[in-house]
Amino acid sequence: MAGIPLIHPKAGQIRMSEDPLKVLSDMASDAHARIQTAHQHINPVVEVRRGMRDAGIPADVMTIDCLRTRRRITLILHDNQPGLLLYQFVTIENEVGNDFKQMAISDLNTDTLFCWMQDYFG
């Protein structure tokens, strides 16, 4: 996605010794609070989904939705790809596409999530 920064190496980076889903959830919560303060019109909805695990796929999914723009950021932590975050920018209607990007979980931080929300939802 053009214009969406991939990495902002600052506060809140994931350390590999921690539970990646817990840390991702904490960072998303922090980024959400910052977005609501800076851009009240965005008001994203963050959700952790159990559907993949319930279907027998060893992965955790988090979605960050903007109901106003009908856009979604999908984040996947797959057990078979430890240390990687799979992510994509889609619409709520399309839900999931085939074009997942990936980055090292250790490169993800609160600033990255904030910038993604600001740029994609704004």
Describe the structure.
- The structure is a single chain.
- Helix content is 29%, strand content 27%.
- It has helices at 20-38, 51-54, 110-121; strands at 45-49, 59-66, 71-78, 84-91, 101-104.
- It has a five-stranded antiparallel beta sheet.
- The protein is globular, with a radius of gyration of 13 Å.
Radius of gyration: 13 Å
Number of H- or I-type helical stretches: 3
From N to C, what is the helix and strand string? HEHEEEEH
- Structural class determined from secondary elements: alpha+beta
Question: Largest beta sheet, briefly?
Answer: 5 strands, antiparallel
Mean pLDDT reading: 87
Q: Could you say which overall geometry the principal axes of the C-alpha atoms support? A: globular
Give start-end ranges of low-pLDDT stretches: 1-16
Helix content: 25-40%
What's the arrangement of strands in the largest beta sheet? Answer: 1-2-3-4-5
Strand fraction equals: 25-35%
Distance between the termini: 14 Å
Question: Which helices and strands occur, and which strands form pairs?
Answer:
Blueprint: H1 20-38, E1 45-49, H2 51-54, E2 59-66, E3 71-78, E4 84-91, E5 101-104, H3 110-121
Antiparallel strand pairs: 1-2, 2-3, 3-4, 4-5
